[in-house]
Design brief:
The chain is mainly α and 167 residues long. Helices cover 60% and strands 0% of the residues. The chain is elongated and about 120 Å long.
Length: 167
């Protein structure tokens, strides 16, 4: 006998054994295996507990007029005006759906996106904005004064004497 955990049809064999539907020769073979395999023994014991619990369970008693009341309620629903049935279907969708779950997910995604955008460094490779230079009017005297001031700021080189400067 193969172990129930290794057999492909082990679950079916276990259910058939516990329900009493397993053929007698196979049941004897399984009982011998259960004596030597503690895992299969525990599985059979657990399944027997389930079968015993189902045997002890008593279904609740349904009143004698249950079917009549059920069909009367269904008929009452079908006789309601169409607009009321439509409104009821709109208010009570077929699939209950909580809107707060996707809204919470969207809010969390938005917070994460804002966090990433706030932490991104500024683009350092962006060109500086160009300022418009006025080229319409150039004052020649200002240019000449600026060049003279630059000459004064430049140190004299040792190869040329300071007296050789025309200034």
């Amino acid at each position: 006998m193969d172990c129930l955990k290794n057999a492909g049809s082990g679950a079916e064999t276990l259910l058939d054994y516990c329900s009493g539907a397993l053929e007698p020769a196979r049941a004897v073979e399984l009982e011998r295996h259960i004596e030597n395999c503690p895992q299969c023994f525990r599985a059979v014991e657990a399944q027997r507990e389930v079968w015993e619990a189902l045997g002890r369970w008593k279904a609740p008693v349904v009143s004698a007029d249950f079917n009549a009341r059920l069909y009367a309620r269904i008929a009452l629903e079908n006789e309601a005006p169409a607009w009321r049935r439509w409104l009821r279907r709109l208010a009570q969708p077929a699939v209950p759906y909580a809107l707060w779950k996707p809204a919470a997910f969207a809010a969390a995604c938005a917070v994460i996106a804002v966090g990433f955008l706030a932490q991104m460094p500024a683009d350092r490779h962006a060109p500086a904005p160009q300022t418009r230079m006025e080229t319409d009017h150039v004052d020649i005297e200002q240019v000449a004064n600026a060049l003279e001031e630059l000459d004064l700021l430049m140190p004299a080189t040792p190869s040329t004497p300071a007296s050789a400067n025309p200034m």
